[in-house]
Amino acid sequence: MTGRHRTFLALGSNIGDRVGHLRRALALIPDVDGESAVYETPPISEIEQDAFLNMVVRLDTELDARALLAVCRACEADAQRVRIGHWGPRTLDVDVLWVDGETVDDPPDLIVPHPRMLERSFVLVPLADVGADLLPEGYDVEAVAAADEIVQVGILADLDDEPTELRVHIIGAGRVGGALALALTAAGWPAPTIFGRGDDLAAVGDEADIVVIATPDAAIADVAAAIPRRDDVTVAHLAGSLGLDVLGDHPRVAAIHPLVALPDPQTGAERLRGAWYAVAGDPSVQHLVALLDGHAFHVADQDRVAYHAAAVVASNHLVALLGQAERIASTADVPLAAFLDLIRGTVDNVASLGPAAALTGPAARGDEATIARHIAALADDERFAYEAMAAEARRLAGRPQPEDG
Questions:
Q1: How, if at all, do strands 104-106 and 110-112 pair?
Q2: In the chain, what is the greatest distance between 2 CA atoms, to the nearest angstrom?
Q3: H-only helix segments in 219-283
Q4: How would residue 405 be classed by pLDDT, with cut points 50, 70 and 90?
Q5: What phi and psi values does residue 85 have, to the nearest 5 degrees?
Q6: Is residue 319's pLDDT more than 70?
């Protein structure tokens, strides 16, 4: 496709500084020839989340649809966009709507014109400002906006950045609560108020936006019941395997589980910045993740136990296996340090190739004779774990298990 042509992109944000996300995206988009007003629109999703700010921009550009998709992805990456479920919350969403003279059918990455453009009032209402000729014939913008509760909030250049500060209370002064408090403070946010064992919880939630319960899992229900009920405060827990029901009848509840190991508050604070978080419930926890430069993904209540089991396998069980490696290596007078680069390289291979392609060793190549020699050389109390993981390695490699005997 050559020459300049008219193009339309749709932008939306509903996490953190929504205005700021839109403004920074506009600075990254080339050849902008027109901007719609900014509209606040209710979310269309089963996932609980805040309202969006939406707008449409018109470009006069030589870029084709594929190049424009790269621009959209760059804008989303700059805003640390993470997809949370289908139609979930996001710091920024940028879509190619229309490119004059070009049709692309390359699902799921790129379809132009956008296949749902004419079904979405939150796209069509702002599109009317800069590309009214693309609207369906007879489309009544004012009536649709009123029916779908779409409200114009102003021109982007005239809007102030939105406050992103969260006032946080933390119940639990242990390594997890301490790590969260240190991480928020290090990120430049006001130091959270921490309530420890024996403190009166009557004041919890006063002048706070979110109360985070950082106690052992078994204590969460009792602690939640002791927190005063307030309509404007979110009560959240940090447990990986518990759902929202453990928080009782608080009107705003959430779960936020950091997918990191937190051995002590200081180390934990460093690991919480930029980490991945399993979230559910009130969208304020997604805001909290954004304050920590983190990445959020949604896990529904019915899936949290399976999710947490996977996390335990990925972390705790891995550490236990490395403990076994250390014990076995010590019988040959080889230190664990000699294996650390192997471990790191293996994890890097999994990250780039996936577990199945990254698997090497005797089980992957079907070398049962070597596996048998290993088992024979091991102490009796080391054989069970080795045999179990050899079976899992064969399973991953798609190889049959040896017959008993």
A1: antiparallel
A2: 82
A3: 220-226, 265-272
A4: very low
A5: 70, 180
A6: yes
Q: Does the bond joining 113 to the residue before it have cis omega, within 30 degrees of 0?
A: yes
The pLDDT score that the predictor gives to residue 35 is 96
d(CA 10, CA 123): 7
| Exposure class string for 307-321: b at 16+ Cβ within 10 A, else e | bbeebeeeeeeeeee
What are the residues facing 280 on neighbouring strands?
A: 255
Query: 3-class DSSP state for residue 170?
Result: strand
Residue 241 CB neighbours (<10 A): 14
Q: CA 231, CA 194: separation in Å to the nearest integer?
A: 21
User: For residue range 23-75, what is the model confidence (pLDDT) as tens digits?
Assistant: 999 999 999 999 999 999 988 776 667 789 999 999 999 999 899 999 998 99
Q: Does domain 168-299 fall into CATH 3.40.50.720?
A: yes
Instruction: Classify residue 165 as exposed, middle or buried by CB count within 10 Å of its CB (0-12, 13-18, 19+).
Output: exposed
CATH 3.50.50.60, domain 306-397, yes or no? no
The candidate with the shortest Cα–Cα distance to 128, out of 115, 137, 116, 141, is: 141
pTM of the predicted model as reported, rounded to 2 decimal places? 0.67
As given in the structure block, the two tokens for residue 379 are 């102490």
- Give me the residue spans of the domains in the chain: 5-158, 168-299, 306-397
Tens digits of per-residue pLDDT, 240-296? Answer: 999 999 999 999 999 999 999 888 899 999 999 989 999 988 877 877 887 888 888
Token pair 């070009």 is at which residue?
Answer: 102
